[in-house]
């Protein structure tokens, strides 16, 4: 933890975390294991170095946060854009916007999507969306989307129109951050598309002219830093107090509670279990949510403004890989994401008789 210039009072709680953390919030939208009553009984060191406990951040404090994370830790150009170049011989690779976070270089964070050749909603093929890197720090979401394009997407081009947005939040990717440069969670911004990441992604999805999408797979991770950094940061930003939460050790999926498609989720879990382990429940829950079957929880994705709601797809899932487990490697994490997408499309082909 960064040291503070002056001592503050800390709430004795390792932060809780919010799904997407991609989704933990709806009832988490209001509750999310938070309370306005600080659970502590004494003066202790600050649990987050920006702001005053219980008081939402000011604009200046948001800027202080950005300054504290501004230095890039990895290269979007080298690790993402360079891998898209070779794909141009097989797919349509195109720019759909640029994030406005560098005044000196407006093109520093270009946004690219990859589309199967001949993508046309009128050609009789169902349309599929795969998204990664909505939270930039979730590496296998980005690299798994690219690996799917490199290794398996062509197996489905005769049956589906496929659009892939592999890195929705490149600023966050470079800084290994969940939020964007304005301290906004892109995965809570899709209801009104108030973040640049959701605005650009929503626009490119709309531009495809698809009446009803068949499948959307949104690739995410659940990491240890959700508890050590990002949930504490959210509580500090919003002036909330939080209780500890448990990071699930393994893969799980988040279905849409409005239409959960349990058999669809099960086929994904079964396929991924051949690659990496599935998260066990704790008291019948994963990240505080009731488990509906092994490795599966549900969220109201539209109410929460999650990326999983950016289309009106009939089959929707959000994957959650756990990259910090000693039981799996980076390659297994990427392969788990690929397995999830392949299982999703295989299930739909069978059920819909495509």
Task: Note the topology.
Blueprint: H1 27-30, E1 34-35, H2 59-69, H3 76-84, E2 91-98, E3 110-116, E4 127-132, H4 139-151, E5 161-165, H5 170-175, H6 196-207, E6 215-221, H7 225-238, E7 241-242, E8 252-256, H8 262-272, E9 285-286, E10 289-290, E11 296-299, H9 301-304, E12 315-321, H10 330-351
Parallel strand pairs: 4-5, 4-6, 6-12, 8-11
Antiparallel strand pairs: 1-7, 2-3, 3-5, 8-12, 9-10
Helix pairs in contact: 4-10, 8-10
Report the span from N to C terminus.
Answer: 52 Å
Structural class: alpha/beta
Q: What global shape is seen?
A: globular
H-E string: HEHHEEEHEHHEHEEHEEEHEH
Care to count the β-strands?
Answer: 12
Parts with pLDDT < 50 across at least 5 consecutive residues: 1-46
Instruction: Describe the largest sheet.
Output: 8 strands, mixed
Instruction: Determine the mean pLDDT.
Output: 88
Number of helices: 10
User: How much of the polypeptide forms β-strand, as a percent range?
Assistant: 15-25%
What is the gyration radius calculated from CA atoms?
A: 20 Å
Helical coverage, percent range: 25-40%
Q: Taking strands numbered 1, 2, ... along the chain, how are they ordered across the largest sheet?
A: 2-3-5-4-6-12-8-11
Quick structural summary:
With 354 residues, the chain is an alpha/beta fold. It has 10 helices and 12 strands. An 8-stranded mixed β-sheet has the order 2-3-5-4-6-12-8-11, sandwiched between helices. It has a two-stranded antiparallel sheet with strand order 1-7.
